[in-house]
Structure formats: C-alpha cells, structure tokens
Amino acid sequence: PPPGADPRPCAWAAAETEVAVSITLTAPLFPPWEPPPKTANTLEELVPRRSLEKIVEPKQASDDFRGEVRRAAQSLAADYVGMFGEELAAAEGPYTEEKVMAARQRKLIFELNRTGKYLELKDTLRAVIVRVVQEKYKKSGDMGYDEMRDLYNDLYVYLVDEMHRALNDLIKGPKRSLEPVVPDAMRLAQLQSLADEYEVNQDFKRASRCHTERLLASTDPQVWYSYGSYLSRSGDVGKAVEAFKEVVAIEPDNLDGLLCLASLLWEEGATQDVQFLEQADSIVRAVMAASENNGVAWALLALVYAEKVGYAEEHLREEAATAARNARFKAMQLCQGAQAQGLTGLPANYFLQLALVLLDLKLGKCAAKALSEAGTVPWAESVKVDMALCSSRAASLQDEPDLAIRHIKDAMRHGARGDAR
C-alpha cells in the first residue's frame, strides 16, 4: 500500500493460521533410553539384615558346675566342722599353727578317701565338666593331641574362674546382673529435644551424651536415624554412614534411611573413592525396588551417575554419561508427570526436594549440585524464592559468605511482601 495508507488485511492472520515445522534427523542425537545397568552388589550384601532376636548363650552346664562347686564346698565345710568342731571352739585366737592345719588337712583327706566321698565328688564334677566342654566348646573326646592341649588350657582357666565365682557367691551372695534400662517413648522424646537444644547451642558434648543414651533403644530405627543425622551435621560422615546402615539393617525398607545413606555415600565418593559411588548406586536401586517411580531416588541416581563420569576410563566415559543422562531424563519426566501434581497445580521439583534432604545433612557441595539441576526443571520459576534460600544455605555450608548473601538478596527481591522466611 502507499505511504500513510492502511495495510491490506492478511488472510492468514484473519484465519488465525499457525505454521508448524517438524525436523526429522537421519540418526538420533542420543541412544534410546534404557534402564540403569545392573549394580555390582545388592542391598543385602552391603548391609546384612540384623536379627532382633536376643541371642542367649546356653549356660546350663556352667550353672550346674557352679552349683556342684557350692554343694561340694558346703559338704566339705560340714565334714571339717564335724571332725574338728571342738578344737575350733577351744581355739584361743583366730590363727592356728601351720602344723596343726596341715595335720587337719591330711586327716580330712584320709576321711574323704575312706568314705568314698572324694570319688563321689570327682565323678560328679567330671560329668558336669564334660557337659561344659560339649556345650561351650562344641567338642567331644575325638580330638588330636594339639587340639586337646589347647582345649585343656582354655578349659582350666574357665573352670577356675567359674569356681571362684561360685565360692564368692557362696560367701557374699550372687550378684545381680545389672542390665541397662531401655528408655521409654517419653524419655526418648525428652532426650531428642535436649539433644536438639544442645546442638543449636553448639554444646556437642552434651548433645552426643543424649544421643548415646537414646541408643540404649538399639532396635528402634528412628533412634539410629536421628543419631546419623546428628553425626552428619556434626561433620562426622564416616560414623553417620554406619548409623544409617544400622537403620537399614533393622528396617531394610526404610526409604528415608536408604536415601540418607546413599547421599552420604555420594558425598564420600565425590571426595574419596569411586567405590562409595558404587555403593550409593546399589542403595538407591533398593529404594527404586520398593518405589519404582520415586522421583527423589531418580534425581539422586542421576547425580551419582554424573559423579561417576569423572572417574570413568576414557573408553567407558560415554557409557557412563549415557547412564547419567537416562537417569536425569527419568527424573525430569517424573517431575512433569501427573503423579507429581500438587495443590498448586504445578509439577514437583524432585531435585529441589533432594537438595532439602542434603541440606538437612549439611552436605553443602552435593546440595549445590542438586540445586543446579533443580534450576533446569520446567516451571522452576514458581519456586524461585525456595531455590534462592536453599542456594544461600548451600553456599554458607561451603564457606562462601558473599555468594550466600547474594542468594539471600535474590530471595528478598523475588519474595512476596510479608514473606518472613
């Protein structure tokens, strides 16, 4: 149209036509998606299940031996008093001459042999000792000379200790076995509250004492979970790993315990040895076996695989990168899936959820890596404030105060008015 004239109407615009363009490649950019490769170890091999049944060592034969020793001592004492009672009553002092004592001993031994009591005592004790050997040492008479010699040495020491114990019980009375009192639910809650308060005040000595008392309830997985979290926050990752292994040993399907254990192994693998990453892989796969579409587990697996790429040899690096890419694709797919929809109608961000777990364990470097992936999830803008706050915490854990302050300022800029976080 001439200058200044209205433009002619466009038929395409009037019909609200859309132009679609598709591109077909002759070959895929990446190999087709495949499930993760098989792990080297299973969960049962890494963390054997712990039996909660109390194993009581059979002590019937040992108890009978101590009983026979007490009866023999009482019988000999009665015979001694019967033979020398009048002399003992007429004694002027508490001490008796050595020659007199030796004469009484010879006379007592003669009387025991004459009446057959010595043989009777010996046969009775011999029968009980045979049972002790069978019960405690799992042995019979069919042994070689060297084996029998070693057994006799151990047996002699053991029987002498048991004899002294029996005689002490006869004189002073049996000692009560003092077993530790397991705290009840209320006491466990009180100790946890105190431990948290001491930890906030950086009184780690008293906090450790509270957790140690809670460990008297050694069959409670939640006690070990709290202790492992405390150890990780205290910087003792090695002991924290062992604590979370106790959680898994008691309750192999404890998903939170499995995820924390895998996270700690990832932290150790990132700084020490690739073997820890292999173990983390096996632990995460145990989570997936129980919950196939666990988004946090897939996010963690993607990051563990990405860490393994740096350890892979040159000819295996592409294979490792493919495994990491496939795991990341699955995590992103779950983030956008219908099962991830929340009350807001927005998909979940499993990398951000993983970062929250890592921050609670004070694993700053791992949390920063998870947050980096969380920023690539679609609709990450909807959780921009949460991302900034978590990033600030991760930077603080890595001793980067300037970066932490910058993230705090980002959170303040994007946060709603009145948001007190």
Automatic annotation (TrEMBL):
GO CC annotation: extracellular exosome; motile cilium
Highest rank taxon of the organism: Eukaryota
InterPro entries reported for this sequence: CFAP70, TPR-like_helical_dom_sf, TPR_rpt
Extent of the TPR repeats: 221-254
Keywords, comma-separated and alphabetical: Repeat, TPR repeat
Database matches in SUPFAM superfamilies: TPR-like
GO terms under biological process: cilium assembly; cilium movement
Protein name: Tetratricopeptide repeat protein 18
Species this protein is from: Tetraselmis chuii
